């Protein structure tokens, strides 16, 4: 059987880490694409030179041409700009909307049957733009954020209670922003819900509240430490788990930014919810019963996503509108020509 083809659009910090993980896990042949010519080629060569040491077989190619994406089974998109200290993810909206529009077009032309995972921020709006620009079915375009936010929540809980991360199951609902909703009631250690663990004395309500807030601020905490960019190891691991579930039809239940068509009362937006990811893409969306306070938090988070998508819609409409011919310059040119004609006629008479 031929190997799968994994295209990584954006060969920066996350792109390079994705490529290494795809190689180590032998998920398939890898194409790294980036607009900076030389970077994807250099990273591809460096990575493939690690294959004899690590013991994996895969082809690695770097390119700055969209045709390199031809026939890809999975595309993971990290193209664009990452934030620096003092910026919010939303500050990236203008520049990254333009990038997602170009990338979507490249995917539409070269690999319309692929399963596409968007990572670029602000995530929930960028995955919406990417789906619109690529025209791929919504079941095949998803956003990665929930796996990462949930991993952070899981890690902080495991550290607090001194238990293995493997036994902590937790997830985060809503948009990938300050208003994300870590789901305390549905998070467990070995099946025991967090509220029960508080009763058992494993955790205090005060510590749990701090962990919830630290999870919400997880991205900013790393940006503040790195200073030159944002997290990339955990984001890459998170996206690879989604790609693996699709390629191996594992049907894992993972929190992803999925296109909602009425679930949770939300229509036409991408928002983080638990999904079943298998060979058919997003195969199912899990709709949980939320209590009043969870509903209110989700509503706030969805409101933030909806506001960003409205800005994207405006930008896309403006970009698609026919350009009006500039009027001032030709008018000036015509006046100049008239004056010149009059002067020539005067000269001729004289
Ligand atoms: N969804 C999530 O949970 C997370 C999202 N992110 C986001 O992921 C994105 C990438 O992050 P990093 O890899 O750390 O950034 P990076 O700056 O290291 O890499 C981005 C790469 O995209 C390339 N690029 C820019 N415009 C392009 C275009 N039009 N076509 C192809 N490539 C293009 C750049 O040359 C660069 O190599 C950022 O927007 C960041 O905010 C980061 C962490 C988590
Ligand atoms: O915070 C950022 O800019 C990157 C990101 O989304 C994360 O690490 O969660």
TrEMBL record:
UniProt entry keywords in alphabetical sequence: NAD, Oxidoreductase, Tricarboxylic acid cycle
Entry EC number(s): 1.1.1.37
Active-site residues, as the UniProt record annotates them: 176
Annotated positions binding substrate: 83, 89, 121, 152
Residue intervals passing through the bilayer: none
Annotated ranges, domain Lactate/malate dehydrogenase N-terminal: 5-143
Top-tier EC class: oxidoreductase
Chain spans, region Disordered: 320-350
Protein name as annotated: Malate dehydrogenase
């Amino acid at each position: 059987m031929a190997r799968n083809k994994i295209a990584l659009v954006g060969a920066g910090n996350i792109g390079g880490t994705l490529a290494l993980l795809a190689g180590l896990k032998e998920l398939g042949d890898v194409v790294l694409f980036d607009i900076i010519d030389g970077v994807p080629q250099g990273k591809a060569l460096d990575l493939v030179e690690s294959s004899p040491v690590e013991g994996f077989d895969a082809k690695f190619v770097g390119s700055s041409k969209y045709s390199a994406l031809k026939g890809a089974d999975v595309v993971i998109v990290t193209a664009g700009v990452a934030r620096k200290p003092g910026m919010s993810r939303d500050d990236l909206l203008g520049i990254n909307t333009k990038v997602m529009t170009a990338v979507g077009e490249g995917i539409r032309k070269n690999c319309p049957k692929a399963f596409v995972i968007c990572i670029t921020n602000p995530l929930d709006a960028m995955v919406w733009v990417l789906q619109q620009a690529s025209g791929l079915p919504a079941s095949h375009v998803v956003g990665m954020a929930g796996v990462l936010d949930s991993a952070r929540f899981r890690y902080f809980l495991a550290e607090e209670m001194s238990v293995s991360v493997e036994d902590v199951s937790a997830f985060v609902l809503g948009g990938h922003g300050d208003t994300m909703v870590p789901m305390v009631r549905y998070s467990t250690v070995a099946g025991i819900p967090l509220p029960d663990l508080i009763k058992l004395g494993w955790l205090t309500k005060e510590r749990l509240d701090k962990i919830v807030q630290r999870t919400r601020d997880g991205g900013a905490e790393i940006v503040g430490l790195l200073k030159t960019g944002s997290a990339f190891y955990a984001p890459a691991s998170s996206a690879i788990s989604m790609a693996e579930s699709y390629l191996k039809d594992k049907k894992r239940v993972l929190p992803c930014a999925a296109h909602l068509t009425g679930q949770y009362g939300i229509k036409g937006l991408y928002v983080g919810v638990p999904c079943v990811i298998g060979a058919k893409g997003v195969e199912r969306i899990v709709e949980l019963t939320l209590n009043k306070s969870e509903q209110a938090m989700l509503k706030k988070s969805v409101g933030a996503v909806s506001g960003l998508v409205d800005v994207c819609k405006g930008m896309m409409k403006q970009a698609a509108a026919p350009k009006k011919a500039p009027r001032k310059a030709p008018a000036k040119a015509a006046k100049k020509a008239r004056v010149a004609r009059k002067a020539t006629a005067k000269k001729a008479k004289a």
